[in-house]
Design goal:
CATH superfamily of the domain at 153-273: Glucose Permease (Domain IIA)
Shape: elongated
Structural class: alpha+beta
Radius of gyration: 46 Å
Oligomer: single chain
Length: 319
C-alpha cells in the first residue's frame, strides 16, 4: 500500500480528512492567483514609482538651474558693486589729487626743466608744458634707438678704445671697443632697442651678440658665457641679452663692448655717459656722425624749431 499524507480538520460538526492531492488542488490555484495579483500590483506600483522619480528628477533639474541662475546673478551684482566701489574710491582719490597736482604743477614742470637741462622759467603756460612734454618724448625716442648707458652694472672699465698692445697676441693694434672687468655670469643688457643680428660663437670674440639699432648703429657684446637671445629676436633697451664670461681670445672674465655705425667703430665712452640731462653733448663729443641730418627727421626737428623761440618768449618781461 502506498504511503499517503492525510490532513485531518476537526470542527464542531465533526472531522474531515483530506489527502495531499486534494489540498494541492486548492492551494496551488490559490497561490498562483495571489502571485498573479502580486505581480500586477507590484508592476503598477513600480510604474507609478518610476513616474514619480522622473518627475522628481525634472523638478530637481529645474531647481538646480534656478539656483545657478540666482548664483550667477548674485555674483554679477557683487562684481558690479565692487566695480562701483572702486570707481567711487578712484573719484575720491582723483578729487583729492587734483588739488595736490594743481599745487605742485609749477614745481613738477620746474623739475622737468631741470631734468632736461633747460633754463628755468618764471611762469608756466599750457604751451610751455606741451613743449616740455614734447622735448622729453623726443629725447627719449633717440635714447631708446641710439646706444647709450653702460651695458653691465657694477663693473669698472679695464680697457679703453684706441691703439694698444693685445694682451694675448702681444701685437699692437686697434682696440675697437671698451672692456669691463666682470665676474663670469654677470648680467649684460641691451643699450638700445633693436634686433639681434648674430648670437653665437665667432673667432676671437668667443660667444658674441651683435645687435642692429636705428640710424645705422650696431653694438657688439663679446667674450660671453651664456647667450639669452637668438638671431632675429626683437630686444628692448635694458633687456637682459647675455651673461659675461671668458670665451674666445681673452685673458680673464670680462665684457668687450663695441659701438659701430655703418661698419665703422666709434669710441663708446661718450655714449656710456649720454643721458636725457646732458642730451646735447653727444652732438659735439662725437663728430664722426653726421648729426645734422637728424634735424630733417622726426622728432628731433620739432624740438629744434619750437624750443628756442619758446625760451625767448618765457624769458621776456611780457610773460
Amino acid at each position: 500500500m502506498r504511503n499517503k499524507l492525510i490532513v485531518t480538520l476537526t470542527t464542531v460538526k465533526g472531522s474531515r480528512q483530506y489527502t495531499l492531492n486534494q489540498v494541492a488542488r486548492v492551494l496551488v490555484p490559490a497561490f498562483m492567483l495571489m502571485a498573479m495579483l502580486s505581480f500586477f500590483v507590484s508592476n503598477a506600483l513600480l510604474v507609478k514609482t518610476s513616474d514619480d522619480l522622473a518627475i522628481l528628477e525634472e523638478d530637481h533639474q529645474v531647481l538646480s538651474d534656478q539656483y545657478e541662475t540666482i548664483l550667477g546673478t548674485q555674483q554679477l551684482y557683487v562684481s558690479e558693486l565692487n566695480e562701483l566701489s572702486g570707481t567711487l574710491a578712484l573719484l575720491q582719490e582723483e578729487n583729492y589729487r587734483m588739488g595736490e597736482l594743481n599745487a605742485n604743477l609749477d614745481e613738477t614742470l620746474g623739475g622737468l626743466e631741470s631734468m632736461l637741462g633747460l633754463p628755468a622759467s618764471d611762469s608756466y603756460t599750457p604751451e610751455r608744458a606741451e613743449v616740455l612734454k614734447s622735448t622729453a618724448a623726443q629725447r627719449l625716442f633717440l635714447l631708446h634707438n641710439i646706444p647709450n648707458g653702460v651695458p653691465i652694472q657694477g663693473s669698472r672699465m679695464t680697457g679703453r678704445f684706441g691703439m694698444r698692445t693685445h694682451p694675448v697676441t702681444r701685437k699692437k693694434g686697434m682696440h675697437n671697443g671698451v672692456d669691463f672687468g666682470a665676474a663670469r655670469g654677470t648680467e649684460v643688457y641691451a643699450t638700445a632697442d633693436g634686433v639681434v643680428e648674430f648670437s653665437g660663437r665667432q673667432n676671437g670674440f668667443g660667444k658674441l651678440v651683435i645687435m642692429q639699432h636705428s640710424f645705422g648703429f650696431k653694438t657688439y657684446f663679446a667674450h660671453l658665457d651664456k647667450l639669452n637671445v637668438e638671431a632675429g629676436d626683437l630686444v628692448a633697451k635694458g633687456q637682459l641679452i647675455a651673461h659675461s664670461g671668458n670665451s674666445g681670445r681673452s685673458t680673464g672674465p670680462h665684457l668687450h663692448y663695441e659701438i659701430r655705425r655703418l661698419y665703422t667703430a666709434i669710441d663708446p665712452a661718450p655714449f656710456l655717459k649720454w643721458n636725457i640731462a646732458n642730451f646735447d653733448t653727444i652732438f659735439t663729443d662725437v663728430s664722426s656722425v653726421k648729426w645734422a641730418s637728424l634735424k630733417e627727421m622726426y622728432p628731433l626737428n620739432q624740438a629744434a624749431v619750437q624750443l628756442p623761440s619758446l625760451l625767448k618768449a618765457t624769458d621776456s618781461p611780457e610773460t
